[in-house]
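User: Thanks for the earlier help. One more: Methionine--tRNA ligase. Can you show the sequence and predicted structure together?

Assistant: Of course, both are below.
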Amino acid sequence: MSHVLTAVAWPYANGPRHIGHVSGFGVPADVFSRYMRMAGHDVLMVSGTDEHGTPILVQADNEGLTPIEAADKYNRIIVEDLVALGLSYDLFTRTTTGNHYAVVQEIFTALHDNGYILAKTTLGAISPSTGRTLPDRYIEGTCPICGYDGARGDQCDNCGNQLDPTDLIGPRSRINGETPKFVEEEHFFLDLPAFAETLGTWLDTRDGWRPNVVRFTRNLLDDLKPRAISRDLDWGVPVPLDGWRDRGDKRLYVWFDAVIGYLSASIEWARRSGDPEAWRQWWQDPQALSYYFMGKDNIVFHSEIWPAMLLGNNGGGAKGGKPGALGTMELPTEVVSSEFLTMEGRKFSSSRRVVIYVRDFLARYDADALRYFIAVAGPETQDTDFTWAEFVRRNNDELVAGWGNLVNRAVAMAAKNFGEIPAAADLQPEDTALLETTRAAFTTVGDLIARNRQKAAIGEAMRAVAAANKYVSESEPWKLKGEENKARQGTILHVTLQAVDDCKTLLAPFLPHSSQKIHEMLGGEGVFAPLPRIEEVDDLDGTGPIGTRGYPIITGDYTGVPAWESRPIHVGTPLAKPVPIFTKLDPSVVEEELARLEAGE
Ligand SMILES: [Zn+2]
């Protein structure tokens, strides 16, 4: 039994999140955490909203809000959506807390003291009208290489070349069209080349990572350059150095503070739990495991930059050093990256309204229907297209007609003929075969989830469902009439209900809402698949932008989860006529949703 840290990518709080976002990090991380808890591990699942950087300022301006008001607004929306999806965070917090600011500054100080932060003068773009830094991707102009007019300050989408904003011909701000001003700025850089060797050695010891992550990271390590970690901006964590600390116009770069969020959220969780040192069990024990979940656009931060920051804090790069004030931290066990979800063949885009927000989705469909689609057809190892036709087909054919129907007919027949869970008499070979199939699935499905092969894992669980459906169809218990057949009918229904109970457990990490319902339907008491809750808390320190005001966190009590094993059902448990677990969707849903998409609603 190990301490397992599930570090989930931090959603950016400049708007509501769409289903592409949650399919890349939220749902896979939750499936993993739920399984690991059932397998007996001590899981700490943390994340929060990422609330610094220019996009927040832009969104706040658009809505006539201050940055913290905009962050408050979207933090709350995101918190509500993630809870509605059933994501079992131990703590989902924010980057604007006093605790986060303090932890970020500790890590900066450790890196600085060990010599891994370099000061450099660079040319940066600012908006003449606001005086604010314009991030590279907010600058547009003509590509100096191919002449394409819509090239961005970070790259040209036409020829694919990486660019600097100063390369663009006729640069203009994508926010308001004005010509950016380039000014000399002093900034801090993380000395990534000083970690090249240690990172390479570490990467060699990583087993079982998805090939795309290993390949991508190897390429990164071949070409490490110092990376800017400060910005000319008045929104973010101040640089904790004399002469910088009180400057209103210099802040740490948003990505630098956001990756530290995994650590600061763990510390906040420990402080709130009553044992402020408890986080150390997940971060400082070499036997502890840590899994980081994200979309592929964030691999660089988790497989290269965050490990480098941890090494720098530990004094483990080419320049040596000693551990910072928080102590030595362990590097990630695994970086689990998903590919992208597209929608009806197009890239998700909030601005072009090719989007379906989590909230809108859950207003019309069940959370488990979305979770099922993501698990079975999500972008685990390749880009995947979400289509409404496929969503409706999988919901109706697999969830409703497969799993839902098995539950329904088993419970309905047992309730009608016995009013309770009947006893099993003489087990026939076909009975034992089914029971062995569902029992064996615990090993197969569990191993696959532990190795983050969730698509294969849910495939195996659904194979057990299919075996049970086949067993019922072949043994035809509804044809067994009269007293002389009662014992055999009872045996078949008992075996089927035991298979249903096993499948309910096997599917609990993927489909917690329906597994809980089935648990109750079979006479089970208490919480089987715990769900998260929103709690309104006060900031612990009152020293961040949140101040002393309250904010919503996601947390929950997941301590009583059932073990990952088959449990014998109890003969004589009363059964009532079942209610449908899943909702069958009318095929007209497809037309309606496509019309909504075209209308940009
Ligand atoms: Zn170009």
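User: Great, one quick takeaway?

Assistant: The first strand starts at residue 3 and ends at 8.
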